[in-house]
Design brief:
By secondary structure, this protein is of the alpha+beta class. The chain has four helices and eleven strands. The chain starts with a helix and ends with a strand.
Amino acid sequence: MKKMFVTMLVVILTSVGLYTGSAPNAEAADSNLVNFFPPYSEIVNTNSILSDLTEEEYNEAIRNAIPMESLMVESAKTQSEENIKPMANMSWVFNNLGPNDGGHFSGSFTSSANKYRITVVQWATDSNKAPSVNYTLVNRDYFGTPALIYGRFTHTNETKEIWNVPPGTYQVMVTNLNDFAISGNGYIDGIF
């Protein structure tokens, strides 16, 4: 079971899309990828499912990372930040999430949907930069493909869909892929 868990972690970490596979040697590839993922010390003491991995398993997953792409869905008009959709499976808010802060984890929710829609607003906390942020559906047995959302969205939102998800209890992991702090909020809906 742990081997399958590590394999799924490899899939999730590879889908960040930051590894080009063109590093001249394995050591250079390792050092390039490590900069894009939270260090093990920030994952091990969280309330996430990743805290069950050993440092060796976590680092192995990063070393084996290969990029994957996520599905883009057209954006829609946003609602005000004070009015996050009340019937969503889960909503979350993150403020001033730094590049070295590890991931932000939503609360958990249980659903039997096999398709989800993630809707977010996001921005650089102290500038007008357009951030790149990964939103990943995770639990102890499942690491989804991260939904990479690039852009500054404050007056409109951005939506992505995640398909082929087994029934279960999940969290949304928000990962800052930038060298600056970010803020935002979002919600996830099951689509039946």
